[in-house]
Write a structure and sequence with these properties.
Layout (H helix, E strand, L loop, with lengths): L6 E5 L4 H12 L3 E6 L4 H10 L4 E5 L5 H15 L4 E4 L15 H29 L2 E6 L3 H4 L5 H21 L4 E8 L5 H4 L3 H10 L8 H11 L11 E4 L7 H12 L5
Parallel strand pairs: 1-2, 1-4, 2-3, 4-5, 5-6, 6-7
Helix pairs in contact: 1-2, 1-9, 3-4, 4-6, 8-10
Length: about 260
Amino acid sequence: MELTGRVALVTGAARGIGRATALALATAGADVAVGDVLPAVEETAAAVRAAGRRAAAAVFDVADPAAVGAGVARVREALGPVDVLVNNAGIVNNIAPVARMTPEAWQRELAVNLSGAFNLIREVVGGMAERGRGRIVNVSSIAAWGGLHRQAAYAASKAGLLGLTKTVALEHARHGVTCNAVLPGLIATELVEAMPAEIRAAAVAATPARRLGLTEEVARLIAFLASDAAAFINGAEIPVDGGLSLNMSPLASVREARETRRPA
């Protein structure tokens, strides 16, 4: 997974999968730019520098096309053209049944999780095509395949990422650009660790591996997809879930049973 001489941009890199990915790419030799709405993304940039690679940090909202354009411009100025884009930024804080989900909450989740990836790809894919090489990895979710009780906006936005992934692959494969999606299951991020214990336990019980995944395990797959070793992998949807997607229906039933005990 040699990435020496490449410039990568990772969004949602202040913590979790994004931070682990930035460090994995740096370990593979890439110079790494990190973006997030959280100023703590500067700490990830410092960790990249500590690993011996050049780094840049930009604080911006991926849902804002103008802010994305300015952020990518800062990255180019600091490190050069983007060779690897990892669209990891996302939110999962809109919990409500479809009948109770507000239009504003729905739109915000799609704006960050789906339109955010579009905004970033739009800024960098032209340059990748001109140079004859590029790697784009979109971080989706196994919720894109099986849905998620009381999280219609999240599941829909992550499913939309799969369509975007395949379309970019179709349009730019001939230019040496790959675009793939990784679909994490339940990964031990701060957000997952803060979930109700019974939901987390049910998910672990439904996972053949019988454990949570590690952010580093997702990051290593992303680093591979960013490398020349993955040049003939394009438009793929790759789960990183310990087999959880094999049991999506039982898991959905457990979640639904728990939620129906609450007032609608």
